[in-house]
Amino acid sequence: MTNIKPPEGFTVRPATMDDVPACTEMFNLWAEDALGYKEVTEEEILNSFESPGFSPEKNAHLAFTESGTLVGYAEAWTHGETPIRPWLWVRVHPDYQNLGLGTYLTQWAEILASQVLDRLPDYLRVCWELGVDGRVEAAIELFENMGYEHYRSYCQMRIEMDAPPPAPRWPNDIVLKPFDPTRDLEAVYLADIDCFKDHHGYVEENFEDDFPRFRHHFIETENYDPALWFIAWDGDQIAGINICRPYSHEDETMG
Fold this sequence. Notes:
The chain folds into two domains: 10-145, Aminopeptidase; 174-243, no CATH class. Helices cover 30% and strands 18% of the residues. The protein is built from seven helices and eight strands; from the N terminus they run βαααβββαβαβααββ. It comes from Candidatus Desulfolinea nitratireducens. GO terms for molecular function: acyltransferase activity, transferring groups other than amino-acyl groups. This is GNAT family N-acetyltransferase.
């Protein structure tokens, strides 16, 4: 990897599984400062570190103060058969921003992401991506100063409800059936893939690698309840899926 140095006064090393509690604490300090709510749980970070194709020792990088406090984190997701869109993710402790850590950590992630070029044909266009909540102006400014351009936004929509919603009216021949993970998981995965084939940036992956990641992300987590998976069938074909979770990141009382 190209030699880059962290800002003076900080030490860096690869992540390990033992870092999950410290990472969770620092991520939530950042989120509470920037967004007003906690971002993740320890179980979610552990699930991410254990994701097939992700190695914390290879894909994640930590920055510490001289006293050993975790103050910076970067990761680069470079898995997949055709990794033309590596995903970069960076967090800096709110008390240690504007000291060069964000730039250093983003550069580290970029260097790791660039290694996918050795695995891909020359004719493929590779574009690594990163993102941040639109309210975090300092991070947006950092990325723009590093040459990134805003090209896509994702919006969260919500309804404040004070009563149960009306009962749904199903189209003819559409039947809602209980989800059985031993019977339906592969069919749900394939339906999800089919739904997103015309979505922005879609890259098809081979089943042998991608299905275990899908199962790990959606099933092998404490925030999974099969009773909240709603599958609409048209005969023996899936017509629609709605994968819900017991609670949201920002409010454990809100599902």
